[in-house]
Batch of 2 targets.
Target 1
Amino acid sequence: MRTLSLPYPDDVLITSGKSPQALEAELIFLLAVKLFELRRLYLGKAADFCNMNIFGEIVETKMQRLYKMVGETKKV
């Protein structure tokens, strides 16, 4: 497996109001959602990508809801 190192400015961390770990987890989650949206990852692989349990109903519902939201914004 490869690793991606992504530098980000301190102001992104400050304006997020999150800890560095929480912000990085959110960025990984958003990348997984985008790759899922582009159909480059299946739902299970997207969940694995951000260390979520695919069998958890909450995770699956959240990913599907986000996918639906992204699809609706493209129609506008």
Target 2
Amino acid sequence: MSNVCQVSDTEARRRYTREQKGIEMTMEQPTLDQTRRSLHGIAELVLAGPQYAACQSIRLRVTPGGFGTVSTPDLRIDGVELVTPSTRIPLSGTFADLARAADVEARPLRDVYEVGPDVTDRDAIAVDPDAVAIILAAFSRGDAAMRTFAPDQEPVIWPEHFDIGISVDEVNYGVSPGDGHLGEPYAYIGPWSPRKGEFWTTPFGAARPLTELSDVDALAAFFHEGAKRAAGDPVAKAH
């Protein structure tokens, strides 16, 4: 990757699917939540924050084995390691420690958006390898499905909500690794103007857990169905 700033155009027990190996495993919800929180913190403080300081871009993208920056600095997550042009660093210590090891300064983005990861640079990183695999698989599957659904679009991982998405004809399509709406990875469709009809099951549009969308083709089909419904269903009246 060039060093020039150039943005590219990604307490109950539950059962999740680890896509890479095609197996099921049991994952404690708190473990998944904690790992997601740490990866979200890394996405903002160690990747997007320093990139914004250098290039005024907060966009991130899916990369082999994880996700990374689109410009300077050249950093990416690969499993449970942070990869720089010269070394691989375990995801451990505080967020500030990890940033220093990568020769960048941890930077929050509250001056860019209001919400984000509920962490500071002094907080400790805590990741479980199996939970990391689940989250990164969700981003990878989402990226592939969006490229299948809309080949002319470039999926973006946004550090604000830590999801990957695109917008087509005033409808957002994306995948979240989990949040306050649903604690597990899920796909979503959000028309800019809410629609009404049986397909639209959430206040923001429609959502399906990835456990109900078995592969890239199923996820792309969900997006196609959402596009069809968004085009045909009436706009919901504002309350």
